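USER: For my understanding, would you kindly supply a protein sequence with its structure tokens?

ASSISTANT:
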Amino acid sequence: MNNDRRDVGSTMAADEEYGHGDRIILLEAPGALRADLDRGAAIAWSEPLNILTYDAAEPSIHPMYLDHRVYQGSSGKVYPIPFTEQIADEGAMREWQAVHLENEYVRLVVLPELGGRIHIGYDKTTGYDFFYRNNVIKPALVGLAGPWISGGVEFNWPQHHRPGTYLPVETSIENGDDGSVTVWCHDHDPFTRMSAQHGIRLRAGSSVVELVVRLHNRTSERQSFLWWANVAARVHDDYQSFFPQDVHYVADHARRALTAFPEADRPYYGVDYPALAAEHEGADRIDFYRNIPVPTSYMIVDSQQGFFGGYDHAAGAGFVHWAERRLAPGKKQWTWGDAPFGHAWDDQLTDADGPYVELMAGVYTDNQPDFSWLLPGETKVFSQYWYPIPAIGAAHQATTDAAVHVERGGRVSARFAVTSRREGATLRILDGGVVVASATADLVPGVPMTLDSDVAPSDAITAELLADDGGLLVRWTPTDAADEEPWVADEPPLPEEIDSVEELYLTGLHLQQNRHPTRSPLPYWRAALARDAGDARTNLALADRAYRSGRLDVALEHAQTAITRLTRRNANPTDTEAYYLAGLVLARLGREAEAQQMFGKAGWDGAWAAASGVELVRSLLRTGQRRSALRVLDTLDGVVGHDTRRIALRALVLRACGDEVGSTAIARAALVADPLDATLRVLAGEEIEADAGLLLDVALDLKLAGALDDALRMIEAAIAAPVRRSGNVRPLAHYLAAEIRAIRGEEDAAARDRSRAREAEQDWAFPAGLDALRALELAVEAEPGDATALALLGMLLYAAGRRRDATTAWNRAIETGQQDPVLFRNAALAAYNVEHDEQKAWQLYGRAVDSAPTDARIRYEQDQLAARLGHTTAQRLDALRPVEHLVLTRDDFAIEYARLLVAEGAAAEAHRILLTRPFHPWEGGEGQAIATWDLALDALGLPLTDPPASLGEARAAYVAPVAVRDDGVTDYFATSLPEMLLFTQDGEDD
């Protein structure tokens, strides 16, 4: 037995604990906290960091309708988030808000302005960054809404990459009674406004980083989601990703492809690994970064273990992730690949910190896309854990207490690492249950302990570590896993090829749940109803879809059809979702008494009791029935699941009844469990961040509960809040205020609010949701010539799939004489896609250009339309030459311009642009610049050469699975296709 502290290499010099040179400087703890740290406590504090930053440009003022963009295998829809398309070429020092956590073993840095990600994870015992430390903030166009940075740990929800990954979160520091310290980060999903809180926690005397997550569906609708914690690890030839030993296969996105693991036994991502291994032994080992030459994802399948991680053999250090297997089956590796193509991407994302891999941990998911469900009001709570390991090698088994590596060469030995001090621990190796080697020792984090034996390897070997009281810390035994090859997904048949109504319904549900980018569920559900018009499941699915797009009469008809079928033989069906949905529709239609009846019946089913209870209480409060509302709450509290919305409603009822003290006390007590819940904080009398979207969310909560005065105060606060890159709510907020004043009979005040809406700044004002829809519809009813309301209404309807209604709204806005380039551009898209009027589309783009002659996006889209309308390359080039300075401000436009130059005999000009202008690739759009470079070289009669550094990318050595087939159709299993696809005439209108 021996204590091993390996030389961890030159990358971990002792003076790097607080950084030097170009590394981010890790700040010393403030004086008072420093004393606590010296006593062994866990501490946290907020203090800015100065980091070299390549700023993301301001987002486009144009809404992006990217429903059919293929992104991570699902829809790349980005509306209502403004889309960012450019990154600065040069970096500058910038101060970032940072929250620091530290104990005797670990240092962490959290960046609230970048989604609350962990940016640095540093092991003080070995001097090793167990999470990849990117010493610059250098985004690339990888994120759903544009910018994304590598490094640290990104928390992805409700899809990957997180919609709010480049948006700020609100934070607070909690010091627990148990000596723990937690940094809570809170955001509202920019799409559906669900709430997420993740707490990053350190405990005294432990090297474990705990992530505590609370995902709350604060909406009235069932929502789909996934959760992937995306950990980056710095890699080189000797870095190994390790997974449980029962992992014999890994799968690609959507399980479209499969290979054995760790030795790939077939071509994967276009790489013939068995052939490479025949030339170079071990070249098929895809657990080592050095062997993967192309951008590659793999997700493990069917493991029953809870751990995995990465190990740096050169440094003698690494990390382990652990989470409870029943909730967290997802384990994945992603890499850009160890080849020039991948290295070029590394350079786009960092200045000097080199390549990385992503080791992702999925909760309620094991693939991408692979979405689960959150019921209305449901809260899912879970934890994930990471900790650094010293020189034990790749872990063969791990818990949150310890990890073990077992050598099975000539003789068995085991190396252990612990996460907290363990005095008098027992290390044992057993053979067939008989102890063959044993030792007692004091173990501490950062120092491995080795136990050797004289026994030869066998299937009866066990290696274990016991605490001084005999409690098991970790145990490894050989894994006996079935070697049967797992299933691989296939493409669903077309509706006409499916026999059963059930399969038609389920296929549509699969497409809807996983947000398929190119295939709609509607043909499947319509085919199902063509065979059985009363099928309850299909009618309910169509009711839900119609409801979400605001087609309330259609939704009610489908919901009632579902109820008729469900109750034909049984007045009390096993599932009452149809009643619940009917209640939502009736409430939106203002038929409160009928809605209350539906919610009451929905509450008979335990699955829907909590959600229907909340909606019933809201309806009762809107109709002034406070005592009835309290009775409903009394029947729910303590019986159904935790829901902060219900607590807020009780506080509101008490306030309405005059019990301010009781109301405030209830809200404050609830904040112990949900410290950053925005509505509860407002009801508790606490300040919340001046985030306009968050303030508007609270206002809508209050409005739904009939608290109109309070809602108006929050709306005014939202109007006063600064506009951020997440969007501009000011015009909508004014229209919502007008709706509330109209409800109260204050018509003059409502007219003033509508006037304020028209006067408000319109950039990034992209309304979404049923509350916004109602407010805008009412504004148009009150003033049919309100061009601002019509323009905003058109944006919302177009994004919701009601494209014909959107077209009508935009055309009406233009008829008022409104001169707005965003309106003209939107109407031009609709003219082409919906009205199929190519000439009108061209004219409208001309008006948009005249209104905003320096808007490069409008010019780019106009040129894309010109190509679709059959304009010659000469005509297009003639139109662009006078505005070349604008053309060259965009990567995509500059590439298109260079192609036009080549086509029209000006290849030398194209060559000059490609050599001198810096380009930034976008994920999935790789190869565009290189293809243009090759065209220019060919036209100039020059030999094919490697692309210059200015193009920002390198040639791919292998052909990855193609997104678009030879027939021009996007492959069903495509994972990335970044084309904007704004001009699509084949989309279905909901």
